[in-house]
Amino acid sequence: MTSAPLSIGVLGAAYIAHQFCNGNRKNKDLRIAAVASRTLPKAKAFAKEYGIAKAYGSYEALLQDPSIDAIYIPLPNHLHAEWAIKAAAHGKHVLCEKPLALHVDEAKAMFAAAEANGVILLEGYPYWFQPHMRELLALAHGGAIGKVQGLEARFSFSLMNPGNNIRVQPEAGGGAMWDLGCYVVSLSRLLMGQMPERVMATPVWSGSDAAQSVDMSILMSLEFSGGRSAHLSCAMNKSYERSATVFGSHGMMETSFPNHSSRKDPGLLRLWRGAVNMVPAEDVAVATGDGFLFEAQAFTDLVRHRDFAAMAQAKAASLDIARTLDAINASARTGKAVLL
C-alpha cells in the first residue's frame, strides 16, 4: 500500500476521455500521466489540453511504459476486451468504460487476464460511485421501503442526425442496449442483488434487416426469484429521460441515478416510508460531485489497498450484468423469452 498518486494512462482520446480528464483535474490521488491515440498529433493535442506529460501515437506504446500503473479505457465497446486483456498482460490495472464487454465470455476472459497478472479490473459506471447511489442502496437494503419487490427504470435520448455515429454501427457494439440499457440493467442488479431468472425483450431496429441494424429502442422485462420483477427501457429515438422507481413491500423511492451531480442539480432521490397515498414524501439530500472523480477515487482505493474482496463483489456484478445483456440481446433477436 502506498499513498503516492496512482499513475494512469488514457487509452484513446474520444469525447468521454475528455470528460474523465476534466473530472479528475483536482484528484490528488490520481495522476493522469500519459495518453495514447491512433495518431501522435491527436495524442499531443489532447496531452497539451490537460497538461499530460506523455503522448503516444499507438496504444501499444503506452502499455509498454513502465512508469504507468494503470490504464483507463474509453475506447468503443468492441475494443474493450482486447485492450483490457493486453493492458493486464503488461501488468497494468484497468478501469474500463461500460459496458465491460459485448459478451459474457469476453468479460470472463478479461477478469481471467487480470487475475493471472495480479491486477485490478473495474467496470466504470460513474453513477455507481455517487453518494446518491450509496444512499439509495442503503435505504433500499436497509428496510426503509420494506423488501424490494420491483423496479421500473428508463434511460433515453434522441440521437439527432446519426450519420456515422458509432452508436449506430453494429460492428462496434452500437445500439441503445449497449449505450443506455446497460445502465438500467446494472441498476436492477444492484437493487435486486442478483441477475434475473428470465428475460423478454422487444426492440425497434434501425433498419429492416435486424442482422445489419442496431436497436434504437428496447423494452425489457426481467423476472427475479421470489416473484420480483424489473421493467426497463432504453432508447436513442426519444427525448431525454433518466429516471427509476423502486417499489418495496412497504414503500417506494424515485431516483434519477445521476452520473454527475451538483448543488444546482443534485439529482432526484425521493422516499415514501409507507403507502404513497398515506405518507408524505421525503426528499433525501446527499453529497454531490463529478461521477468520474468518484469513480477514479474508488478505483484508486481498490488498487492502493489491494482490496480483492471488494473487487470480487464488483466482478460478480459485472459478470451478472454481462450475462443479462447477452440474454436480452438473444431475446430481442429471436422474439422469445430467455432463461438464465
Short description:
The protein has helices spanning 15-23, 40-50, 59-63, 80-89, 104-116, 131-141, 176-192, 291-305, 308-334; strands at 6-11, 30-36, 54-56, 70-73, 93-97, 121-124, 148-158, 198-205, 215-223, 229-235, 237-248, 251-255, 269-272, 282-283, 338-339. It has 340 residues and is of the alpha/beta class.
Give the secondary structure arrangement, pairings included:
Layout: E1 6-11, H1 15-23, E2 30-36, H2 40-50, E3 54-56, H3 59-63, E4 70-73, H4 80-89, E5 93-97, H5 104-116, E6 121-124, H6 131-141, E7 148-158, H7 176-192, E8 198-205, E9 215-223, E10 229-235, E11 237-248, E12 251-255, E13 269-272, E14 282-283, H8 291-305, H9 308-334, E15 338-339
Parallel strand pairs: 1-2, 1-4, 2-3, 4-5, 5-6, 7-10
Antiparallel strand pairs: 7-11, 8-9, 8-15, 9-10, 11-12, 12-13, 13-14
Describe the structure.
The protein has two domains: 6-124, Rossmann fold, CATH 3.40.50; 128-293 and 321-339, Dihydrodipicolinate Reductase, domain 2. The strands form two sheets. The protein has a nine-stranded mixed beta sheet. The longest helix is centred in the C-terminal third of the chain and has 27 residues, at 308-334. A hairpin with a 2-residue loop joins strand 11 (237-248) and strand 12 (251-255). It has helices at residues 15-23, 40-50, 59-63, 80-89, 104-116, 131-141, 176-192, 291-305, 308-334; strands spanning 6-11, 30-36, 54-56, 70-73, 93-97, 121-124, 148-158, 198-205, 215-223, 229-235, 237-248, 251-255, 269-272, 282-283, 338-339. It has 340 residues and is an alpha/beta fold. Helix 4 runs parallel beside helix 5 and helix 7 (176-192) packs across helix 9 (308-334).
